[in-house]
Amino acid sequence: MEGTAQHQVVIITGATGSMGAVATRVKAAEGYRVIMACRNVKKAESLRQQILTEQPDADIVVMPLELSSPSSIRAFAQMLEGQKVTELFCNAGVKAHRYTLTEDGIEMDFATNYLGNRLLTNLLLPLMPIGAHIVIMVSLTTKFAHLTADWQQMRPKDFGQLSTYASSKLALMYYAIGLAKHHPELHINVADPGVVDSNMINMDRWYDRLADIFFRPFIKTPEQGVYPALQALKTDKSLCYFVGKKENPIPQRFVNNPLVEKLWKE
Ligand SMILES: NC(=O)c1ccc[n+]([C@@H]2O[C@H](COP(=O)([O-])OP(=O)(O)OC[C@H]3O[C@@H](n4cnc5c(N)ncnc54)[C@H](OP(=O)(O)O)[C@@H]3O)[C@@H](O)[C@H]2O)c1
Description:
This protein is an alpha/beta fold. It is about 40% helix and about 15% strand.
């Protein structure tokens, strides 16, 4: 991308979350105009104020975005019409504790993690100049995820906190691969944060308190978790899987999976 960071705009979804907040601080400090795309505007505004006390020159804007709602996504994209977006960090994600449907009757993990990110990215593409970056946050759970083309037929009894989350993230990764194949003019990559100390790892079960004592102290901090994504926002490559300090091509078994094209046409 040409130009200094002052002329660059990054959209960070889920900027109120553990890793999103770190990314917002880092990109603001680098001189970017940061658009915090958040469903909880009050929480986002309070974080913005906090960052402004640390970095008075920061250029940060809060905009409402509910990723499980197509109308909210469309309204968000409409508000940006005519602006240039140089980086998009699709960071927001959810791991629902139980089977929940959105207003449109779609399972919450798939509606948010897959369809929401997909619609948002598609609507923002016309605002992204050649060489712009898109980073999609995936998960190591994609490695054992099971996904079929008929995922929309999912029934309540098919739901599992981890398995459904993993499948929705795999669908998102297939979307990212399709996007990179169809848009060679952009840098499109995925980032895997590992297991990170955030709300996301809460299972809403009796053993959470034990996990907090014995497990949380040993997992990655949000700063460590978001590092690969921040690296991916700078790369001049595409179709790479950023994890830890490594940057590898996305494995061929994903890139060449027939579901990539099937989902692309969905
Ligand atoms: N933590 C891990 O171990 C881990 C591992 C692998 C991948 N990831 C991925 O990393 C990303 C960041 O997670 P995190 O660990 O930082 O979790 P987090 O602290 O729970 O942050 C999640 C963010 O997503 C936002 N969000 C959730 N549902 C949304 C919706 N429907 N519309 C708009 N925003 C929504 C949340 O908003 P609110 O603040 O309003 O709740 C929050 O800002 C996620 O994509 C997650 O799947 C995390």
